[in-house]
Amino acid sequence: MAETIHILIGTTSGNTEYLADQLSEALHQQGFATQLHDEPDLGTLPTEGTWLVCLASHGAGDYADSMLGFYDQISLHEDPLKQLKYAVIAIGESCYDTYCKAGRHLDSRLQELGGKRLTSRLEIDMLEDDPEQKALQWLPNMVNALNSEE
Ligand SMILES: Cc1cc2nc3c(=O)[nH]c(=O)nc-3n(C[C@H](O)[C@H](O)[C@H](O)COP(=O)(O)O)c2cc1C
């Protein structure tokens, strides 16, 4: 039985939630269980498991609203996350100087805390890319990394 993938959703206006739903569906089709977290809480999320973070940047490169609380939690968190495997999809628009800054920040914060990055971060430019198509092309990188660990 494949492990559960926890999908963390950082959205303000819903685009990222829609994308996360598509990814969840694709993962189900490949035999994974998923759990969607629309307001991720570090207090209850398993840190010995797999996270797929889908995080949009807002403000001036800030975390989107549904993960503002998570930003505070992960910034203050001190215990190493050595049993965590994760991958990040950063969503933004290339017209901002702070393009995808939130996703970049969380990726490097999880590295700092000792998490294992399963594959390189995907950055989606909502001005240029087809988000679903780009994410579904990237997803096998994460799935292959997980499968090769078993
Ligand atoms: C007020 C506002 C601020 C934004 N700031 C950034 C930013 O700093 N960097 C970036 O890459 N994208 C930025 N964006 C683009 C959003 O990340 C993009 O619209 C994304 O699709 C929003 O996803 P969501 O619907 O899941 O919230 C901003 C969008 C808005 C409306």
TrEMBL record:
PROSITE patterns found in the cross-reference section: FLAVODOXIN_LIKE
Any matching Pfam family: Flavodoxin_1
Cofactor: FMN
Residue intervals of the Flavodoxin-like domain: 5-143
Signal sequence extent: none
GO molecular function: flavin adenine dinucleotide binding; FMN binding; oxidoreductase activity
Top-level taxonomic group: Bacteria
InterPro entries referenced in this protein's UniProt entry, alphabetically: Flavdoxin-like, Flavodoxin/NO_synth, Flavoprotein-like_sf
Keywords for this protein: Electron transport, Flavoprotein, FMN, Transport
One Gene Ontology term, aspect cellular component: cytosol
SUPFAM superfamilies, A to Z: Flavoproteins (SSF52218)
Protein's name according to its UniProt entry: Flavodoxin
Organism: Idiomarina tyrosinivorans
